[in-house]
Amino acid sequence: MAVVQATANYLENEDAFGRWLEECCFVGVNTQDTAARLYESWKEWAEAGDWHVGSLREFGDQLEMHGFERKKGAGGIRLHVGLKVLK
To answer: What CA–CA distance (Å, rounded) separates 22 from 44?
Structure first.
């Protein structure tokens, strides 16, 4: 039963993450944004919908699982390639 519940929670959070990407981000090859700016957008959106926010690290892992590469920008700023926050 615990596995069924864990799977349901995962799928629910996966759906929420996908909705955030659609509603709050522009996805494109030549785009990028800071991890901090992306996370802040996710955090606001997730809290408003009463979704699990998670840590910045978990968020970065989730972005990578969706194909958004991590890289370091000037001054060591953490970036994700392929998307940017709309607002």
So the answer is: 15
